[in-house]
Amino acid sequence: MQQGEHVPDFTAKDQTGTSVTLSDLLAKGPLVLFFYPKAFTPGCTQESCHFRDMYGEIQAAGGHAVGVSADSVDQQAKFAGTYSFPFPLLSDEDHEIAKLFGIKRKGFLPAKRTTFVIDRDGTVRGVIASELNMDTHADRAIALLRELQPA
């Protein structure tokens, strides 16, 4: 999935087991959809906690965030509860969402660490890909959201 492409609707379960669609998420405004490889690993914890810490700025810039990994609903619930995330975490156990976005990989960590900023109409407005700089995902997403705001 590249900048300018339209994301097809998909459905996934969040950490509470509730089915959520992309269209439901976009109804709330521009979406920062961040993929992390595995809950409770050092890099993914750092990245997700930075999204938590920057969540007020994400909202002030008109957006909201949702995390995605191949972890089970139960594991997502533990991760969200342990770190008090104010945003949903989606379970992509079958790797279908990662495939849809073109970031699936083989092995222990099934998805590349990638963040997509998606406008209300489903258009990808930015792609942030960094496996090693965990904070850049939220920081760059906020800058992209600010660019989307009307002048």
Description of the structure:
- This protein has 151 residues and is an alpha/beta fold.
- It is 35% helix and 21% strand.
- The protein is built from six helices and seven strands; from the N terminus they run ββαβααβαβαββα.
- It has helices at residues 22-26, 42-53, 55-60, 73-83, 96-101, 136-148; strands at 11-14, 19-21, 31-35, 64-69, 89-91, 114-118, 124-129.
- The longest helix is centred in the last third of the chain and has 13 residues, at 136-148.
- 40% of the residues are buried.
- The model has no long low-confidence stretch (mean pLDDT 92).
The SSE string, one letter per element, is: EEHEHHEHEHEEH
Query: What structural category characterises the helix and strand content?
Result: alpha/beta
**Biggest pleated sheet:** 7 strands, mixed
Q: How many strands? A: 7
What is the C-alpha radius of gyration, as a whole number of Å? 14 Å
Overall geometric form: globular
**Could you give the order of strands across the largest sheet?**
2-1-5-4-3-6-7
- Count every helix, treating DSSP H or I runs of 4 or more residues as helices: 6
| First and last CA, distance | 27 Å
Q: Strand portion, in percent?
A: 15-25%
Calculate the mean pLDDT score and round it.
Answer: 92
Stretches where pLDDT falls below 50 for ≥5 residues? none
How much helix is in the residues? 25-40%
